[in-house]
Amino acid sequence: MERTVVERTVRRIGALDEAAMRDAERKLDRLTKPPGSLGRLEEIARQIAGMTGELNPDLSRKAVVVMAGDHGVCAEGVSAFPAEVTPQMVLNFLNGGAAVNVLSRHAGADVVCVDIGVNADMSHPDLLVRKVGKGTGNIAAGPAMSRAEAEQAIAVGIDVAESLTARGYRLLATGEMGIGNTTPSSALLAALTGAEVEAVVGRGTGIGDEALRRKRDVIARALSVNRPDADDPLDTLAKVGGYEIAGLVGVILGAAASRCPVVVDGFISSVAALVASRIAPLAKGYMLPSHLSHEQGHRLLLEHLGLRPILQMDMRLGEGTGAVMTFPIVEAAMKLMNEMATFESAGVSEK
Fold it and tell me: Which residue in the list 76, 149, 176, 319 is annotated as catalytic?
């Protein structure tokens, strides 16, 4: 039987290169410092070596993929902003005016914006229009999308990641835009982990107490109406997810299949990472967690993934901002391993 794009990609994801990681460990231990004294920087350098199979990969070409999509659940009043902000912010990304643009310029990274499910007809020379649908269904009343649409959205993300790596990008990050998307993200987290709704639902764009209670009720209804199968991540994604979340699942899988490190942003991106890890457990080895979001539920989510965030900045913007801020740290880790003197070359006595 012909395998799907998702199945073929999952089969291409390999384990981390243990030999390269051992070589990195030995190299790090020969540098002019006490062993392990650079902490997480040394961990990152080892992991990058394992991902790429190289001790000195060229990570200079890097990009954040911002997937954009709308959500029918916005009709339930779960966001502080109206749904029309999604296409407006997409144009802001394309014009270089959003926070992720500023931080990407600072980090020397490109912003790749993908319309995977915006509820508007958009056109711009720099916009990748890969629309699966014009917004998802209202998850409080029925499924977000069909299973076939979920697979299609994942395939879009895979294609975007593989196209970027084919063009020489060696470090990717996940970003998203979609008014209301903390609601399906919270529903996915609750469905996949069995966590209580109250433990995973936060204020998103800054809603008040009444709206927060309504949001929790909407998510509880979504789980009751759709009955997502926690043992089937694709079923869960289709029933209570979002197009941009599915697209990010594909970005992560595509990056892993290409042995390309992918820096995962905050709450929504981490939900996509959780889904990706359920579809392809080996994909987790290619993830670098960027920061601990201020959004409730993110800590629990990272614990389920077994990932420790690199930064804690009390951020909750999304867009890929936390991931892009982590790019210089990843590059610094590799430069330390490859540019520091060894005890022998510097003529420094060892203990």
Answer: 319
